[in-house]
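Thread: coenzyme A complex, take 2
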Amino acid sequence: MSYLTLLVEKKQGYAIITLNRPDKLNALNGQLLADLHHALVSVQNDTDVHAVILTGSGVKAFAAGADIGELQPLTAESGLPFSERGQAVANLLEHLGKPTIAAVNGFALGGGCEMALACHIRFASENAQLGLPEVTLGTLPGYGGTQRLTRLVGRAKATELILSGERVNAQEAHKIGLVNDVVALEELLPRAEKFVQTVLLRSQTAVKAALSAILAAEELPHTEGMRFEAEQFAQLCATADFKEGTTAFLEKRAAKFQHQA
Ligand code: COA
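Output below.
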């Protein structure tokens, strides 16, 4: 499948999706959001794909936000579905059931930052700049940014960034927990791929359950989240991967997972 605004590369066990409007700094227009939604559903259904890396084409931007040309004519009526459409793509990234890793290779602003926030892990290149500048345009982050940034870095820092509209550089983003690691631009994809290759060695049945339990920490009250974790733990105890992983340890050999329940 080829897309107007994306490049999708399938590798051994994972896929790399590249936002590809470099002349517009990979700004998220309607076509790109539709393409991204379609590509994410495809990799979600692809049993050969166990993780997704999301990055931007070129050396300057991951994505410089929603396409401002499409924002400008919005009204109160059209604004709601516009926001919901972007939120749906971000929600899909977060609930893909497979690890999603943002490789932030430059500007990640507005909707671009919000897509990175929806990924489970963020690695940034040294030239990256992240921010939610929507108040400079007279609006607010509408693709989940007010919720996800606040949960990720805490209310004080999120409020500072969202109300000022200011960007943070990669080092500052790392300091506040907005990105997991910072590397040279040429090391960015190798860093993301190395992480993915490590995760691919694990039981994908367990990885999927762990991801859903981590998300439950934000989405459920504490006692329900603890219950959800215990239920996931119990279900994994019945899997072939659990028997293999524990037996392999006791037999002092490497586990060979089937990635099945
Ligand atoms: N929507 C639409 N087009 C965008 C865009 C966006 N969010 N961000 C950048 N572009 C376009 C520019 O209009 C320009 O197009 P042109 O060459 O046809 O004029 C092209 O991408 C390059 O951007 P430019 O502004 O010339 O690059 P720069 O290096 O001078 O500045 C930024 C880079 C990221 C600082 C600047 O582009 C910017 O502030 N973008 C908007 C960021 C934003 O507010 N995002 C939130 C949107 S909700």
